[in-house]
Specification:
alpha/beta; 9 helices; 5 strands; globular
């Protein structure tokens, strides 16, 4: 099985690209960001390990995991973030491996917003497809999609330094194909089809 990594900054449209890939080519999509959220509830060891290492609980009054409590601890705290990622990454990779065993496909898509930002993912996947758009457009899309204030989206975007650098013209290594999502859905679909054929047809 080949692994296609699809990544991009907030509002770039990477999830729409993954939807098109699944619809046109039938490749299953593993949304890493969503699966991590799920692991806090389904992995019996993950949350206790994080709480034990950081020395505090991240559950609400009902004993249920609270993403906001964890986010408030690691936001702006590089040391705590590194600790959490060192525990989350192995759990995520284990979950992905199990998921791949159940997926009947020659290609699996790994969707992640931060895969290029993290050292743990270096060299991961057979191909990396980056979805991008001008920063202004990404900001407009994210605000409209999430219904939040521009300042809050900008704060989240500020954490994706590598993605913002690319949108501003800086080249990123380890990327095999780039889709600039600055048009309508038909244009995007055409770009996706061309990119997937370019990445995989020569390897068949």
């Amino acid at each position: 099985m080949k692994i296609l990594v699809v990544t991009g900054g907030i509002g770039s449209g990477k999830s729409e690209v993954c939807r098109i890939i699944s619809e046109v080519f039938g490749y299953p999509v593993y949304n890493a960001d969503n699966r991590v959220k799920r692991l806090y509830d389904t992995d019996a060891d993950l949350l206790p390990s994080i709480e034990r290492t950081l020395g505090e609980t991240f559950r609400n009054q009902d004993g249920v995991f609270s993403a906001s409590l964890l986010s408030s601890r690691i936001f702006g705290d590089a040391g705590s973030l590194e600790i959490v990622e060192s525990l989350v990454f192995p759990a995520l990779m284990k979950d992905f491996s199990s998921w791949c065993e159940d997926a009947d496909s020659e290609v699996a898509v790994f969707e992640s917003a931060t895969v290029l930002e993290k050292e743990q993912f270096k060299g991961f996947g057979d191909h990396v497809l980056l979805v991008d758009a001008p920063v202004r457009l990404r900001l407009e899309r994210a605000c409209g999609r999430d219904g939040v204030e521009k300042e809050k989206v900008q704060a989240r975007m500020g954490m994706q330094k590598l993605m913002n650098m690319y949108s501003e013209g800086t080249a990123i290594p380890d990327v095999d194909a780039v889709i600039i999502n600055d048009g309508d859905l038909k244009e995007l679909r055409d770009k996706v089809v061309l990119a997937i054929h370019a990445l995989f047809d020569g390897n068949k």
